[in-house]
Amino acid sequence: MTAALKFGRRPPKRAPALRLGPLLTGVVPAHPAAEDYLAALHGGWDMLGNDQYGDCVAVTWANVRRLVTSTLTSHGSYPGLDEVIALYKTQNPGFPAQDDGMDIQTALEYLAKTGGPDGVKAVAFAQVDHGNADEVKAAIAIFGSVWTGINVLNVNMTEFDSGQPWDYNPASPVDGGHSVVTGGYGPPGTGALGGDERFITWAAETSFTDAFWTHQVEEAWIVVWPEHFGSKAFLEGVNVAQLAADYQELTGRVLPVPAPPPAPPTPAPPKPDPAVLLEQLAAQIRNTANAALRWLEQHNL
Q: What is the reported pTM?
Protein backbone atom coordinates (compact mmCIF):
# COMPACT_ATOMS: atom_id res chain seq x y z
CA MET A 1 0.00 0.00 0.00
CA THR A 2 1.19 3.52 -0.70
CA ALA A 3 2.71 4.64 2.60
CA ALA A 4 0.98 8.03 2.58
CA LEU A 5 -2.55 6.62 2.32
CA LYS A 6 -4.61 5.17 5.16
CA PHE A 7 -7.67 2.97 5.63
CA GLY A 8 -10.07 3.17 8.57
CA ARG A 9 -13.48 1.59 7.99
CA ARG A 10 -14.42 -0.75 10.80
CA PRO A 11 -16.49 -3.86 9.98
CA PRO A 12 -20.23 -3.09 9.70
CA LYS A 13 -22.18 -3.54 12.92
CA ARG A 14 -25.33 -4.57 10.99
CA ALA A 15 -27.83 -3.00 13.37
CA PRO A 16 -31.46 -2.64 12.19
CA ALA A 17 -31.78 0.05 9.54
CA LEU A 18 -34.14 1.33 6.87
CA ARG A 19 -33.79 -0.29 3.46
CA LEU A 20 -33.94 1.76 0.30
CA GLY A 21 -35.82 -0.73 -1.91
CA PRO A 22 -39.24 -0.42 -0.21
CA LEU A 23 -38.92 3.38 -0.16
CA LEU A 24 -38.68 3.75 -3.92
CA THR A 25 -41.83 4.69 -5.83
CA GLY A 26 -43.38 1.25 -6.35
CA VAL A 27 -40.53 -0.22 -8.38
CA VAL A 28 -36.98 0.87 -9.02
CA PRO A 29 -37.58 4.06 -11.00
CA ALA A 30 -36.12 4.59 -14.42
CA HIS A 31 -32.61 5.98 -14.35
CA PRO A 32 -30.17 7.26 -16.95
CA ALA A 33 -27.93 4.75 -18.70
CA ALA A 34 -24.96 6.75 -17.44
CA GLU A 35 -24.51 9.40 -14.75
CA ASP A 36 -21.50 11.07 -13.15
CA TYR A 37 -22.24 13.65 -10.48
CA LEU A 38 -18.58 13.71 -9.48
CA ALA A 39 -17.27 14.90 -12.84
CA ALA A 40 -19.60 17.90 -12.71
CA LEU A 41 -17.54 19.30 -9.82
CA HIS A 42 -14.33 19.28 -11.91
CA GLY A 43 -12.07 17.88 -9.20
CA GLY A 44 -11.17 19.97 -6.19
CA TRP A 45 -11.35 17.06 -3.73
CA ASP A 46 -9.26 17.28 -0.57
CA MET A 47 -7.30 14.59 1.28
CA LEU A 48 -8.70 15.79 4.63
CA GLY A 49 -6.20 13.90 6.73
CA ASN A 50 -6.66 10.46 5.17
CA ASP A 51 -2.95 10.35 4.37
CA GLN A 52 -2.23 10.55 8.11
CA TYR A 53 -5.24 9.07 9.92
CA GLY A 54 -7.85 6.38 9.41
CA ASP A 55 -10.57 9.01 9.03
CA CYS A 56 -11.97 7.80 5.67
CA VAL A 57 -15.54 7.54 7.02
CA ALA A 58 -15.47 11.16 8.20
CA VAL A 59 -13.87 12.20 4.89
CA THR A 60 -16.72 10.47 3.05
CA TRP A 61 -19.16 12.61 5.04
CA ALA A 62 -17.33 15.78 3.96
CA ASN A 63 -17.24 14.66 0.32
CA VAL A 64 -20.96 13.80 0.38
CA ARG A 65 -21.80 17.20 1.87
CA ARG A 66 -19.78 18.91 -0.86
CA LEU A 67 -21.56 16.89 -3.54
CA VAL A 68 -25.07 17.48 -2.14
CA THR A 69 -24.69 21.19 -1.51
CA SER A 70 -22.94 21.83 -4.82
CA THR A 71 -25.61 19.92 -6.75
CA LEU A 72 -28.77 21.04 -4.94
CA THR A 73 -28.03 24.56 -3.69
CA SER A 74 -26.67 27.74 -5.18
CA HIS A 75 -23.64 27.71 -2.89
CA GLY A 76 -21.64 24.53 -2.30
CA SER A 77 -20.14 23.88 1.12
CA TYR A 78 -17.13 21.63 1.69
CA PRO A 79 -16.30 20.78 5.33
CA GLY A 80 -12.61 21.15 6.13
CA LEU A 81 -10.07 19.14 8.09
CA ASP A 82 -11.11 20.52 11.49
CA GLU A 83 -14.71 19.45 10.91
CA VAL A 84 -13.63 16.03 9.62
CA ILE A 85 -11.53 15.46 12.74
CA ALA A 86 -14.43 16.61 14.95
CA LEU A 87 -16.61 13.88 13.43
CA TYR A 88 -13.77 11.37 13.66
CA LYS A 89 -13.45 12.05 17.38
CA THR A 90 -17.04 10.87 17.97
CA GLN A 91 -15.67 7.32 17.65
CA ASN A 92 -12.08 8.13 18.59
CA PRO A 93 -12.35 10.36 21.67
CA GLY A 94 -8.66 9.83 22.46
CA PHE A 95 -7.51 11.16 19.06
CA PRO A 96 -4.72 11.53 17.99
CA ALA A 97 -3.39 8.79 20.25
CA GLN A 98 -6.55 6.84 19.39
CA ASP A 99 -6.82 6.34 15.64
CA ASP A 100 -9.01 3.26 15.25
CA GLY A 101 -11.21 4.14 12.28
CA MET A 102 -14.99 4.37 12.28
CA ASP A 103 -18.08 2.25 11.71
CA ILE A 104 -20.22 3.77 8.95
CA GLN A 105 -23.62 2.99 10.48
CA THR A 106 -22.63 4.44 13.86
CA ALA A 107 -21.45 7.58 12.07
CA LEU A 108 -24.77 7.82 10.20
CA GLU A 109 -26.70 7.41 13.45
CA TYR A 110 -24.70 10.27 14.94
CA LEU A 111 -25.31 12.50 11.91
CA ALA A 112 -29.07 11.83 12.15
CA LYS A 113 -29.28 12.34 15.92
CA THR A 114 -26.79 15.12 16.57
CA GLY A 115 -25.86 16.50 13.17
CA GLY A 116 -22.51 16.98 11.54
CA PRO A 117 -19.87 19.52 12.51
CA ASP A 118 -21.26 21.73 9.73
CA GLY A 119 -24.49 22.04 11.76
CA VAL A 120 -26.64 19.99 9.36
CA LYS A 121 -28.53 16.90 10.54
CA ALA A 122 -29.21 13.97 8.26
CA VAL A 123 -32.97 13.45 7.99
CA ALA A 124 -32.60 9.68 7.61
CA PHE A 125 -30.40 7.01 6.05
CA ALA A 126 -31.05 3.64 4.48
CA GLN A 127 -29.17 0.58 3.30
CA VAL A 128 -28.81 0.03 -0.43
CA ASP A 129 -28.89 -3.51 -1.76
CA HIS A 130 -25.42 -3.33 -3.26
CA GLY A 131 -26.02 -6.66 -5.03
CA ASN A 132 -28.87 -5.13 -7.04
CA ALA A 133 -27.27 -3.12 -9.86
CA ASP A 134 -30.51 -1.34 -10.77
CA GLU A 135 -31.08 -0.25 -7.17
CA VAL A 136 -27.52 1.06 -6.91
CA LYS A 137 -27.88 3.05 -10.13
CA ALA A 138 -31.27 4.39 -9.09
CA ALA A 139 -29.81 5.42 -5.72
CA ILE A 140 -27.01 7.36 -7.42
CA ALA A 141 -29.44 8.97 -9.89
CA ILE A 142 -31.81 10.04 -7.09
CA PHE A 143 -29.40 10.99 -4.30
CA GLY A 144 -26.28 11.87 -6.27
CA SER A 145 -24.14 9.27 -4.55
CA VAL A 146 -23.98 6.08 -2.53
CA TRP A 147 -21.88 5.94 0.63
CA THR A 148 -19.86 2.78 0.04
CA GLY A 149 -17.92 0.49 2.37
CA ILE A 150 -15.31 -1.63 0.60
CA ASN A 151 -12.46 -4.04 1.29
CA VAL A 152 -9.42 -2.87 -0.65
CA LEU A 153 -7.12 -5.45 -2.21
CA ASN A 154 -3.38 -5.02 -2.29
CA VAL A 155 -3.49 -4.99 -6.10
CA ASN A 156 -5.91 -2.06 -6.00
CA MET A 157 -3.23 0.14 -4.46
CA THR A 158 -0.94 -0.60 -7.39
CA GLU A 159 -3.82 0.18 -9.75
CA PHE A 160 -4.50 3.47 -7.93
CA ASP A 161 -0.83 4.48 -8.18
CA SER A 162 -0.87 3.59 -11.89
CA GLY A 163 -4.06 5.49 -12.73
CA GLN A 164 -6.02 2.33 -13.48
CA PRO A 165 -9.53 1.26 -12.39
CA TRP A 166 -9.81 -1.03 -9.38
CA ASP A 167 -10.44 -4.62 -10.44
CA TYR A 168 -11.03 -7.88 -8.58
CA ASN A 169 -8.19 -10.36 -8.23
CA PRO A 170 -8.98 -13.33 -5.97
CA ALA A 171 -5.27 -13.99 -5.47
CA SER A 172 -4.64 -10.54 -3.97
CA PRO A 173 -4.84 -10.15 -0.17
CA VAL A 174 -7.07 -7.54 1.49
CA ASP A 175 -5.17 -4.49 2.70
CA GLY A 176 -7.97 -2.88 4.70
CA GLY A 177 -11.54 -1.62 5.00
CA HIS A 178 -12.28 1.72 3.37
CA SER A 179 -15.13 4.20 2.97
CA VAL A 180 -15.71 6.13 -0.26
CA VAL A 181 -18.42 8.08 -2.05
CA THR A 182 -19.63 6.48 -5.29
CA GLY A 183 -21.22 9.11 -7.51
CA GLY A 184 -21.25 7.83 -11.07
CA TYR A 185 -21.78 4.81 -13.29
CA GLY A 186 -21.92 3.97 -16.97
CA PRO A 187 -19.75 2.83 -19.85
CA PRO A 188 -16.04 2.74 -19.02
CA GLY A 189 -13.98 5.79 -19.85
CA THR A 190 -10.21 5.94 -20.11
CA GLY A 191 -7.38 5.68 -17.60
CA ALA A 192 -8.51 5.70 -13.99
CA LEU A 193 -12.12 6.01 -15.17
CA GLY A 194 -11.94 2.80 -17.20
CA GLY A 195 -14.21 1.01 -14.72
CA ASP A 196 -17.98 0.86 -14.37
CA GLU A 197 -18.63 2.82 -11.14
CA ARG A 198 -16.96 6.17 -10.36
CA PHE A 199 -15.88 7.02 -6.83
CA ILE A 200 -13.76 9.46 -4.84
CA THR A 201 -10.92 8.33 -2.61
CA TRP A 202 -7.78 10.06 -1.38
CA ALA A 203 -8.71 13.31 -3.17
CA ALA A 204 -9.03 11.69 -6.60
CA GLU A 205 -11.82 10.39 -8.83
CA THR A 206 -11.26 6.83 -10.02
CA SER A 207 -13.44 3.80 -10.72
CA PHE A 208 -14.34 0.20 -9.90
CA THR A 209 -14.99 -2.59 -12.35
CA ASP A 210 -18.25 -4.46 -11.90
CA ALA A 211 -16.18 -7.46 -10.76
CA PHE A 212 -14.66 -5.41 -7.94
CA TRP A 213 -18.08 -4.10 -6.95
CA THR A 214 -19.54 -7.62 -6.83
CA HIS A 215 -16.79 -9.07 -4.64
CA GLN A 216 -15.36 -6.23 -2.57
CA VAL A 217 -18.27 -3.91 -1.67
CA GLU A 218 -19.45 -4.87 1.81
CA GLU A 219 -22.05 -2.17 2.54
CA ALA A 220 -23.74 0.74 0.79
CA TRP A 221 -25.97 3.53 2.11
CA ILE A 222 -27.92 6.56 1.02
CA VAL A 223 -28.37 9.58 3.25
CA VAL A 224 -31.42 11.82 3.07
CA TRP A 225 -30.29 15.39 3.69
CA PRO A 226 -32.55 18.44 4.10
CA GLU A 227 -31.46 19.62 0.64
CA HIS A 228 -33.07 16.57 -0.98
CA PHE A 229 -36.56 17.87 -0.19
CA GLY A 230 -36.00 20.51 -2.85
CA SER A 231 -34.87 17.91 -5.39
CA LYS A 232 -37.27 16.81 -8.14
CA ALA A 233 -35.40 13.50 -8.51
CA PHE A 234 -35.83 12.75 -4.81
CA LEU A 235 -39.49 13.75 -4.62
CA GLU A 236 -40.34 11.68 -7.71
CA GLY A 237 -38.15 8.70 -6.90
CA VAL A 238 -38.82 8.25 -3.18
CA ASN A 239 -42.18 7.54 -1.54
CA VAL A 240 -41.86 10.09 1.26
CA ALA A 241 -44.99 8.80 3.03
CA GLN A 242 -43.48 5.30 3.11
CA LEU A 243 -40.19 6.74 4.30
CA ALA A 244 -41.98 8.47 7.16
CA ALA A 245 -43.92 5.31 8.08
CA ASP A 246 -40.86 3.04 8.01
CA TYR A 247 -38.81 5.59 9.92
CA GLN A 248 -41.42 5.81 12.68
CA GLU A 249 -41.75 2.03 12.87
CA LEU A 250 -37.98 1.63 13.23
CA THR A 251 -37.22 4.53 15.56
CA GLY A 252 -40.52 5.32 17.27
CA ARG A 253 -40.08 8.94 16.18
CA VAL A 254 -41.66 11.17 13.55
CA LEU A 255 -39.54 11.72 10.46
CA PRO A 256 -37.96 15.19 10.88
CA VAL A 257 -39.01 16.57 7.51
CA PRO A 258 -37.47 20.03 7.13
CA ALA A 259 -39.84 22.95 6.96
CA PRO A 260 -40.15 24.46 3.50
CA PRO A 261 -38.21 27.68 3.08
CA PRO A 262 -40.31 30.80 3.72
CA ALA A 263 -41.79 32.40 0.66
CA PRO A 264 -39.90 35.50 -0.39
CA PRO A 265 -41.62 38.68 0.79
CA THR A 266 -43.79 40.50 -1.71
CA PRO A 267 -41.77 43.46 -2.89
CA ALA A 268 -43.20 46.87 -2.00
CA PRO A 269 -44.52 48.80 -4.98
CA PRO A 270 -42.00 51.33 -6.28
CA LYS A 271 -42.38 54.86 -5.00
CA PRO A 272 -43.74 57.22 -7.67
CA ASP A 273 -41.41 59.77 -9.17
CA PRO A 274 -42.35 63.25 -7.81
CA ALA A 275 -41.62 64.83 -11.18
CA VAL A 276 -44.04 62.42 -12.85
CA LEU A 277 -46.69 63.18 -10.22
CA LEU A 278 -46.31 66.93 -10.80
CA GLU A 279 -46.61 66.48 -14.56
CA GLN A 280 -49.76 64.34 -14.08
CA LEU A 281 -51.24 66.97 -11.74
CA ALA A 282 -50.43 69.77 -14.18
CA ALA A 283 -52.11 67.81 -16.98
CA GLN A 284 -55.25 67.33 -14.86
CA ILE A 285 -55.31 71.07 -14.06
CA ARG A 286 -54.94 71.96 -17.75
CA ASN A 287 -57.71 69.54 -18.71
CA THR A 288 -60.01 70.94 -16.02
CA ALA A 289 -59.26 74.54 -17.06
CA ASN A 290 -59.87 73.79 -20.74
CA ALA A 291 -63.14 72.05 -19.92
CA ALA A 292 -64.23 75.08 -17.87
CA LEU A 293 -63.35 77.48 -20.71
CA ARG A 294 -65.35 75.42 -23.20
CA TRP A 295 -68.36 75.46 -20.87
CA LEU A 296 -68.14 79.22 -20.49
CA GLU A 297 -67.88 79.72 -24.26
CA GLN A 298 -70.86 77.47 -24.86
CA HIS A 299 -72.88 79.62 -22.50
CA ASN A 300 -71.60 82.95 -23.95
CA LEU A 301 -70.02 83.81 -20.65
A: 0.85
